[in-house]
Amino acid sequence: MVGKINQATTRLEMPEAIIGNSRMLALLKRNGEIFKLFWPRIDYGQHLGRFWTGLRFGNSPTKWFHLGEWSSSQRYLADTNILETTLTGLSSQLSVTQWDFVLPQQDLLARHYKIENTGGNSESITFFLYCNFEIEESILYDGVYLDFASHALVFFRRDVYFAVAGCGYPLAGYQCGRRDTATDPYREATEGTLWGNRDSIRHGAGSLAWDLGEVRPGEAKTFTIYLAAGHGEEEVRALLAVAATRGGSEWLEDTRQYWLDWLQAGARTLEGVPAHPAYNRSLLAMKLMTCRETGASIAAPEFDPYYQACGGYGYCWPRDAVFVAAALDEAGYHQSAAQFYNFAAKIQNKEGDWRQRYFLDGMPAPFWGKQIDQTGAVLWGYWHHYSLTGDRDFLEQIWFSLAAAASYLTEHLEANGLPSPSFDPWEDEYLQGTYSAAAVCAGLKAASELAAVKGNKGDSDCWLAASKTVREGILKRQWSERLNRFRRGVNRRVYRDTYERALGRGERAFTGTDPTGIYQTYFIGEDERVDAALLGLVFPFAVLDPLDDRMEATVRAIEEKLWNWGAGGLRRYEGDNYREGNPWLITTFWLSIYHCLAGNRTRARQLFNWCLSQANQHLLLPEQAGKDSGGPAWVMPLNWSHAMFIFTHLALHGQLSILKNPGKKTDY
């Protein structure tokens, strides 16, 4: 019953903006409402129910900021993760500026307000807060009480505590109750008549009020609310005490300076290139979606925990995280990239491969199959980091992981020279995929080169030979002379009806059994659909030169078959029906990078600009754009999209280190 209650009230809503400190992550709407809060890691748990603020003028009902009594505009403060929302009263002469941010070194979320009277009459103002939490995504076993020592509402469940308090004005009222019952304080907060109940249990809700006094015409007052997260009452009390040592405007300025310094200290200077606003925004977003303790990154902030429309995004896929780490490496954040690679080495399976996805503490996450491309991608990432840094200590740290992964890949090559079947990068087909083979080919070559650096000639020769075997398999088995392009893959597992239809058309199809020998499985020989992931043969895995005739023919087919002729952009593959088959930003960035490599810079720039035009007002990038009208359509911000932006931006300015020069043959 609890799950049903939560699921019924969980809407699949993308954030307009995110704030955080790589331990705490908050998602906000266009009107400035916070609607999700993750802590102590950015993937788990989501604790927030409601966090609503508003003003009461005299004896009128409270005008809540999240409701329709205010118009709003919003922006990030330049080059920071501080969100500014300006609210203008539709039926009052008040203007409210709200700055939302998380202190960089403390798990304190701050909401700093400036309330200005723009009218001709004085206003007597009371500030109201109403909030409730679903701690660790549960409405059971929690409690809420007013801590009289700090004048804070404290919500707790076992060892997870949240304390909410205001600074600068005296407390004017409080009330605790149970959400959606007669004791729920929301009605009293709206009426301005809190009646002082000091505690409650199970799905607790609370409200606080502060008397801001009279605000004269032209006068402005500031007020700050803090939300502290910790593992006990004393910990959150101590955090609130720290918050009270300085004014909200001082914390705001300190946090602003922190983000400016972070960009200045870490980012590689782009020679002669003006910084694109989306470049820094991508770095800032990627930072928030990367765990401070482990260096692992989520695909996107979780918005579908019940898997109502997808399998969830708030997890670390090794493949996605490799591209995020590589983008950070390219941008100059080598320490962040190394932290992820060391995390990857620690969570590796004893067989040498990686699971499909993980929680950010390294625990396995729910999965639906193996993805051998991820093992190849991690090896490629190890090589990429070393190629940029020359860090021999790093090489020693990941060596056993690298050797285990390379051995795993070598041992999982089939008789046709291709890697064993697994799920493709889009995770919906089980086959010997061309993209997966490219990743394995590049991973083995990367391992060979790093073994040579260590002087391990035997390993280097073995892994290079395996890489060459995979490349030969790609060229022999994945290339179709009849189609004059590469296939998506071969030996695809299908349902029986698909198998029978293939037989009826005279196509190659065969059967097998599952590992237990109990159930029959069905396969078709060739998956001839066009797939944008075939671009991986050039970038980043460099199996083929961009000007190779076979690659040029494949790219022509990709553009012809997959271009979305409505709003633009490149779809993933023929017949894609996920979210109605929208175009994706990563595929379109991918195509842009290919054209950079091939020397078609005008086309590359067009594709890059199309991707940017799909961003929201804050330059946060979605996974998909609406196929008919464009704009963010699904999952935002997507970490992989921001990583691909970094790659493409650098490529367009000739500063992406991993690109080979156009016309240079792949070195095998």
List keywords for this structure.
nine-stranded antiparallel sheet; 16 helices; five-stranded antiparallel sheet; 27 strands; alpha+beta
How is the topology of this model organized?
Elements: H1 2-8, E1 17-20, E2 25-28, E3 34-41, E4 44-46, E5 48-57, E6 63-64, E7 70-76, E8 83-89, E9 94-102, E10 108-117, E11 123-133, E12 143-147, E13 152-157, E14 160-167, E15 171-178, H2 186-191, E16 199-201, E17 204-215, E18 220-230, H3 233-244, H4 248-266, H5 277-288, H6 318-331, H7 334-347, H8 372-389, H9 392-411, E19 422-423, E20 430-433, H10 434-454, H11 457-478, E21 479-480, E22 485-486, E23 489-494, H12 496-504, E24 509-513, E25 520-527, H13 549-562, H14 585-598, H15 601-613, E26 624-625, E27 632-634, H16 639-652
Antiparallel strand pairs: 1-2, 2-3, 3-4, 5-6, 5-11, 7-8, 8-9, 9-10, 10-18, 11-17, 12-13, 12-16, 13-14, 14-18, 15-17, 19-20, 20-23, 21-22, 23-25, 24-25, 26-27
Helix pairs in contact: 5-16, 6-7, 6-8, 6-16, 7-8, 7-9, 8-9, 8-10, 9-10, 9-11, 10-11, 14-15, 14-16, 15-16
Description of the molecule:
With 668 residues, the chain is an alpha+beta fold. 34% of the residues lie in helices and 24% in strands. The strands form six sheets. It has a nine-stranded antiparallel β-sheet, covered by helices on one side. The longest helix is centred in the last third of the chain and has 22 residues, at 457-478. The chain is elongated, with a radius of gyration of 27 Å.
The largest beta-sheet arranges its strands as: 7-8-9-10-18-14-13-12-16
Strand content: 15-25%
* Unreliable segments of 5+ consecutive residues: 1-9, 660-665
Nearest-integer average pLDDT: 94
Q: For the report, how would you describe the main beta sheet?
A: 9 strands, antiparallel
Compute the separation of the termini in Å: 60 Å
What is the share of helical residues?
25-40%
Q: Enumerate how many helices there are, as a single number.
A: 16
**Helix-strand category:** alpha+beta
